[in-house]
Amino acid sequence: MSQSFVYQAQPARVIFGRGTSARLPDEADRLGLRRLLVLSTPQQTALATQVQQLLGERAAGAFAGATMHTPIEVTERALAVVKELGIDGVVSVGGGSTTGLGKAIALRTDLPQIVLPTTYAGSEMTPLLGETRDGVKTTQRSPKVLPEVVVYDVDLTLSLPLQMSALSAFNAIAHAVEALYAPDGNPIVSLMAEEGVRAIVDALPRMMREPGDATARADVLYGAWLCACCLGSVTMGLHHKLCHTLGGLFDLPHAQTHAIVLPHALAYNAPEIPVALTHLRRAFKTEDPVQALLQLERECGIPLALRDIGMPRDGVARAIEQAMANPYGNPRRIEAGALGQLLERAWAGEGV
Ligand code: NAD
């Protein structure tokens, strides 16, 4: 254990279980909300309608325009609806894209948010908001964007397609892995990180065998929640910065990029993170968590090469250039040569 640390807890009310969406009206009443706007992507309007029905007269309307990377234009359209309908709170039903829209509205209006996550991305537990203006994504940290209530309903994750589920779970694991070697890490966050990875790694094979296995789904969601707490608490390193760079440069899909880069980023840092590796050995129940992670990804049948998700061949050089131009904290120094090898392997889908 580190003998000296700072631990800053994020305020959160979390309701977890199966069928917990039914608690939504009580939660709205608890917050005194009577004119809620239900947010979703265009793909999840059926679920948003169910949530509106559940809220009854507390739902004043719905906005189904949430999309990846929280474009400012979408937020502005949603804000117009907020104003027009006299909204007093938002209910975000969906993955990180929908949660991002709710946070963007809260940042500008201070409206309370209730979030029903349906992926494992974890935005609901963080004070972070990434927004895109004219194609440029910037991330900020503000306590104003933290949701008031998060209702994890395992049943809402059952419809997440299997491959997306696996990708999203690896996205969650990435938060915990980087928390274990964060410069501002602490023993509480490490407990959450190890337990989060353990829960996901243990449940993923069961979920892959039987996507409707609610117990496995509950375990993955529980692990994802813990991993999300890690993301919200400490500073991320090479892996997250690299994914951010790649996503911004080549418009790569979020969860896929995380899943592909993670084993490579972990292998890069491995020589400098003995304590983190001890946690990960326990979580993966193996001596070599890097290979175990890659093996688990193979078993889940997800893409393992950046070239397969749209990164161009000449992208490696551009990514190195951008990553080197913005230095950031990481346990192992960022060296152009080694970073190039990492990206070449991740691009081609080679092992680590
Ligand atoms: P997403 O929210 O974009 O969802 C992907 C697609 O899956 C969408 O079409 C969505 O409607 C659909 N979907 C989601 N849940 C479903 C379900 N249960 N059943 C069927 N379809 C479902 O993807 P994501 O990976 O959750 O979020 C990615 C976004 O979140 C990125 O923009 C990323 O930057 C952001 N993010 C932010 C933070 C943060 O702390 N600010 C953390 C993680 C992710």
TrEMBL record:
Record's keyword terms, sorted: NAD, Oxidoreductase
Entry-linked Gene3D superfamilies: 3.40.50.1970, Dehydroquinate synthase-like - alpha domain
Residue span, Fe-containing alcohol dehydrogenase-like C-terminal domain: 166-347
Domain Alcohol dehydrogenase iron-type/glycerol dehydrogenase GldA residue range list: 11-153
Broad EC category: oxidoreductase
Cross-referenced SUPFAM superfamilies: Dehydroquinate synthase-like (SSF56796)
GO molecular function: alcohol dehydrogenase (NAD+) activity; maleylacetate reductase activity; metal ion binding
Matches recorded under InterPro entries: ADH_Fe/GldA (IPR001670), ADH_Fe_C (IPR056798), Alcohol_dehydrogenase_Fe (IPR039697), MAR (IPR034786)
PANTHER family per record: ALCOHOL DEHYDROGENASE, HYDROXYACID-OXOACID TRANSHYDROGENASE, MITOCHONDRIAL
UniProt name for this protein: Maleylacetate reductase
High-level lineage: Bacteria, Pseudomonadati, Pseudomonadota, Betaproteobacteria, Burkholderiales
